[in-house]
Amino acid sequence: MNQIIIHVDMDAFFASVEMRDDPSLRGKPLIIGSLPRERGVVSTCSYEARKYGVHSAMNIKEAYRRCPNGIYKHPDMDKYKAVSGQLHQIWDAYASAAEAVALDEVYLDVTQQAGDLEGARRIARTIKQRIRDEVGLTCSVGVAYSKTAAKTASEEKKPDGYFEIPTAQDFVNLMMDRDVRALYTVGEMTARKLYASGIRTVRDIREKQDTVIRLLGKQGRWIVQLAFGIDERKVTPYRPQDAKSIGREVTFQEDVDNYELLKDVLVLLALCVEHRAKRYGLYGNGVTLKLTYFDMKGITRSRLTPGCDSAVTIWQEAVRLLEGVEKRPVRLVGASIYHLSSEDGRQLTLEDFLTDTKERREEELKEMLDALQNRYHLDFAGHLDQIYQGDTLHKTVEYMRKHSS
Cα angle vertex 388, ends 384, 258, to 5°? Predict the structure, then answer.
């Protein structure tokens, strides 16, 4: 094996953490996400809930229709992030490179550490045992020659599973007669296009390569490569500056047609974006406003804003963009910064040397927060840092919506 990759995928992560901390939830259909009376989707669910057809990203109303006797809970992201930190300490100890793709999922390059398949097998079993002993959770692990094969392997024996795909030929033998959707990157829309051309299995992809490429272009070439077991991608550790944008958004429980309220909500979103950007030492060179209207039509509007690193600037630019959109009831609002750069490589501007500019921004932010406190009878004193938590942000926004005039 030229490279040996381990893919670790925690089993029903959010739900498993909740069941670990509250044993009374074990063996029951537990659904983490929005509550049935709210707008939103399922984040994850226990395997007992999956027996009812509930799955991640399902509309919460549909989940409730299928599983009315389920236990529904909001996610506790702070707790899940803390557990993820424990997992990373375990994962990182066995790899030359670790690429986390979610709080509960990681690719590990163990080529040097393992030496061969038997060495990788020992590492995988050690990781599983440590996670069970130290974190109290189970995971499914795949060992393979490539990232795609490793991810496929980890899915093979869920939950608490282990599977190996040592070579490209092993991958092909396993996948040949499976539906095209078994391949990485083939989603529902792509599958429909393939089905319409009589391409239903991985074998069909191999036999009708030209058709796949003609239908799907660059994506089609990638899918053909996967059908032959070819994937030479390396495990690449995530760097915050590699992200395309940093943003935050909220979905209202009832549509909002009060655009002054939207401007107020954007204050909190801008604060969240600033907080995350500073945590990673990044700044943006553009601001994006995102809206989803009541009819699910979504729009984005962007504006170049060099050196954008303060909540005040993010808010000001987002409001300018908001003032230019069609005024219809809004279901979701979001703000983000893009064209990210590291503070280390930032070219200083005149404003960076002007103390009064920084003080003015701080004063403007204070005035904005004071206005929110007076308008909605909120109390940010000593509690502003809680706004960065997803559940607190959503509860605050809903409180503002209910008390807006």
Answer: 85
Instruction: Provide the CATH number for the domain formed by 240-402 in this structure.
Output: 3.30.1490.100
Cα separation of 318 and 297, whole Å? Answer: 19
347: which residues sit within 8 A by CB, 6+ positions away?
none
3-class SS of residue 193: helix
Instruction: Name which of 202, 218, 1, 12 is nearest 111 in CA terms.
Output: 1
Give me the residue label for tokens 């792509």: 190
Instruction: Count other C-beta atoms under 10 Å from residue 377's C-beta.
Output: 9
Over the stretch 50-87, which tens digit does the pLDDT of each residue have? 999 999 989 999 999 999 999 999 999 889 999 999 99
Q: List all residues 6 or more positions away from 277 whose beta carbon is below 8 Å from its beta carbon.
A: 246, 283, 284, 309, 337, 340
List the alpha helices (DSSP H) in 197-345: 202-207, 209-216, 218-227, 259-279, 311-322
Helix 355-376 and helix 311-322, axial crossing angle in degrees, nearest 10: 60
Q: What is the pLDDT of residue 39?
A: 86
* Residue 360 in tokens: 């003015």
All CATH 3.30.1490.100 domain ranges in the chain, comma separated: 240-402
Domain with CATH 3.30.70.270 in the chain: 1-164
Active-site residue, selected from the candidate residues 18, 99, 105, 317: 105
Per CATH, the homologous superfamily of domain 172-227 is: 5' to 3' exonuclease, C-terminal subdomain (1.10.150.20)
The model's pTM is: 0.77
User: Is there a catalytic annotation at residue 105?
Assistant: yes
Closest residue by Cα to residue 265 from 357, 362, 402? 402
**CATH, range 1-164:** 3.30.70.270
DSSP 137: -
What type of residue is 63? A
